[in-house]
Amino acid sequence: MSAHLAVVANGLQKAVEVNLDQLQDAVGNGFFYVLEEDNATRLLATAPPPWGQTIPSLPAGGGFQMTHWRHLVPVLIHRLARHSGRTRQLSAASCCVVASPPFGSIAAGRDCNRADWERLCPGKPIVAMDGPDADGKRDSLCAPLWRRCRENGPRDAIVRVSGSPPGLVDIDGTRSLCRRLDVPYLGHARLPLAAARPAERPTRIAYAGAVWGHLDSEAMGFNAWRRAIRDECRRQHDKDSNSCKWSWVSMRGSGAPAALTLYAASTFCLQPPGDTISRSGIVDAVTLGCIPVFFHPQQRELWTDHWRAAEASVLFDWTPAAWAEGAPQPLVKDPAVYAARAAAMMAELIAMPAERVAALREAVARAAPALVYAASEGGGQAGGTRGASADAVDHLVARMRALRLEPSTEEQARYEQQLARRAADRVAHKARRAEHSAWLTTRNDTLGKRGKERSPKAKRLERRPKG
C-alpha cells in the first residue's frame, strides 16, 4: 500500500488538502466496476445528470448551476462511469458500483436487486449509491436494502454511500446503520474558484432557509431554532442593514439564486439543522467563501474524510439540556426560548476580530475543492490539469480503493463505535423524554388545581354558550 493510500484509508483527516495527482497515485490502475448490467445503473451511467441552468448572478468561474441536492445519485454514477479509477473488466475489479433503486419502485419493494447484484458481482464489496441523507425519511432510496445491511453488520457485501450517516438525528434507530462511505451534499458549484478569490463582503451575517414545511424539523424542535434565528436577523437588520440579511429558500430549491448571491456577499452563513443536520447550504457557503455557522455539534462530524470542519466553521452548541420554565430542551419548540441565544450568537459574530475571520476564510478556501462535485474529472479545476484539486468524487474513489469484502480492523472498530454511540444516545434520549413527560404531568396537575380554585363566577362564564 502506498503512503498516499494509507492516508486515504485512515480517513484523510490529516491530509484533506491533497491534489488530484496524489489521489490518482493512491488509486493506481482502474479497480472498480460499474455494474451496468443493472438497469438503473446503466441508465444513470449513460445519461447526463440534471445539472440545471447556470446561475448568472454568481461568478461565472465557479460554474454555479441550479442542481437540486436530491440528484446526488445521478451525479455520482455519471462521474464514476467516466472516472480513471474505473475498470471495464469485472475480473480486474476489487469492488462494484451500483445505483440504489428509486424510492417507490418495484425493486425497492422487494430486495432492492440485492440478489442480482451479488450474482453479478460475486465475492466483492458492492458500493451502492443511496440518497443524499440517510437520516431523511424519504431520502433513503431503498429501505429494505438497508434493513438487511443492519442485520449483517460490517460484514455485509453492501457498502452504502450517502450524504450523511444515519443516526445523527434519528436517535430511536428506526433507520438503519450499514457499512458506509459518506460524501458531501450536492451543492450548486462545479468549481471552487469563488471560495479562493478575494471578494467584497458588505453583509456580516446571512441566513437562507425556510422556517416551516419541514416535518421532521418541526417534530425535533429545529424549526424553533430557525424562527429564533430569523427573528433576530430581522432585529439586527433593523438596526444596521448590513449586519444581517435573511433570504427564503425552499426544500425544492426555490429561491436558491437569491440565497447564493447573499452567501457570496456575506462573511458568515448560518446553517441551523432542518429535517436533518445536513444541509446543501453548508457546501454552498464554503464554495462561495462564506464561513458556515453551526448549531449542532454533530454538524462538524459531517464528511470528515473531505474537510476539517472544526477549522473552517464556527459552532454555537444549542443542544445542551438547559431548562426553560422547567422543560428540558431541545424538546421545547417555542422560538422565544432561544431568542437570547440568537442575540448572543449574532453579537459574537459581529464582534469577531478581523484576524480570526481571516483565518477562518483561509480554512474555508482550503476546504472548498473536496466538497465540490465537478462536472468532469479534474476535480477543482477545469480541464483536469496537473496540480488540480481533487473534488468530492475523487476523494470517494480513493476510499473505495481500500474496500474489501472482509472489513478492515479500522472499519470494524468504527462500526462498533457507531453502534455504541447510538445505544448511548438512545438511553439518554429516553431519559430526557421521561423527564419531559414528568414535567408535563406536573404542569398539567398544577393547571388543574388552579382551575379548581377559580371563582364560581369564572366557571359559570366558561360554561356559558358562546354567541
Automatic annotation (TrEMBL):
User: Which InterPro entries does this entry report, sorted A to Z?
Assistant: Exostosin, Exostosin_GT47
Residue ranges annotated as compositionally biased, kind Basic residues, are: 457-467
Basic and acidic residues composition bias: residue spans: 446-456
Q: Where do the Exostosin GT47 domain residues begin and end?
A: 181-321
Gene Ontology terms for molecular function: glycosyltransferase activity
One Pfam short name: Exostosin_GT47
Where do the segments described as Disordered lie? 420-467
Signal peptide bounds: none
Q: Which domain of life is it from?
A: Eukaryota
Concerning PANTHER family, the annotation shows:
EXOSTOSIN HEPARAN SULFATE GLYCOSYLTRANSFERASE -RELATED, XYLOGLUCAN-SPECIFIC GALACTURONOSYLTRANSFERASE 1
The family line of this record is: Belongs to the glycosyltransferase 47 family.
Q: What is this protein called?
A: Exostosin GT47 domain-containing protein
